[in-house]
Write a structure and sequence with these properties.
The relative contact order is 0.14. Strands 1, 2, 3, 4, 5, 6 and 7 form a 7-stranded mixed sheet that branches. The longest helix has 16 residues. This protein has 5 helices and 7 strands, in the order βαβαββαβββαα. Bound molecules: inosinic acid. Inosinic acid (IMP) binds next to strand 3 and helix 3.
Length: about 200
């Protein structure tokens, strides 16, 4: 059965295809000729994910899922949250985002934060939401060269290394995205596959 992942990120598509044991044929946006930059203007992760999934479903009538992720910092009332990619400006520059984040947190001792991913699935014309999160804290200075985004300044609870210092295989066991994907996969595994 074909299932669209509303993304152009080939790495994400390959990752989930593997996890699904190829029971579902995962298609990216390019595979269904959607080249639009789908707007992500909502003020929360779930609405953004639902909007993207509906956008694709309306154009293809196919089963589809979309994800949206944000870093939520307690002392900043949940910012950057839904604005994580463009926190320091439209250029989506991860280094500038980290610089801005550390500046906002200067002198603040409560460094608690979490990554949260929401996945919206439209399956047989019904909508479902799956969420994953990982609690942790923002450190004072960046550490590590792996990962992406805010990884160099985020340490998950129970760890003493940032997401940019631990191997990807380790991050993938506990990450927000992995947990949301796991819930999606569990749901899909229960669905009868028809051709
Ligand atoms: P997206 O919804 O997956 O595109 O994520 C939005 C933004 O959140 C990204 O541009 C990153 O700034 C940040 N982000 C998402 N996932 C991660 C992660 O695993 N590590 C660090 N930053 C992340």
């Amino acid at each position: 059965m074909e299932l669209i992942f509303a993304t152009n990120n080939k790495h994400k598509i390959r990752e989930i295809s593997d996890l699904l044991d190829n029971r579902f044929n995962i298609l990216g946006l390019a595979d269904v000729s959607i080249t639009d930059d789908i707007p992500e203007d909502a003020d929360n992760l779930a609405d953004n994910a639902v909007y993207k999934a509906r956008y694709v479903h309306e154009r293809t009538s196919m089963n589809v899922f979309a994800d949206d992720t944000g870093l939520e910092v307690n002392a900043l009332n949940g910012a950057p949250g839904v604005h994580s990619a463009r926190y320091a400006g439209a250029g989506r520059n991860p280094d500038d985002n980290i610089i801005k984040l550390l500046k906002q947190l200067e002198g603040i001792t409560n460094r608690k934060a979490r990554f949260r991913t929401v996945i919206a699935l439209i399956f047989n014309n019904r909508e479902y939401l799956f969420e994953g999160k990982v609690e942790g804290k923002i450190i004072q200075k960046r550490k590590g060269t792996g990962g992406f985004g805010y990884d160099p300044v985020f340490i998950a609870k129970g760890y003493d290394k940032t997401f940019a210092e631990i191997p990807l295989s380790e991050k993938n066991k506990i990450s927000h995205r992995a947990q949301a994907m796991k819930k999606l996969l569990e749901f899909l595994a229960q669905q009868p596959v028809s051709q």
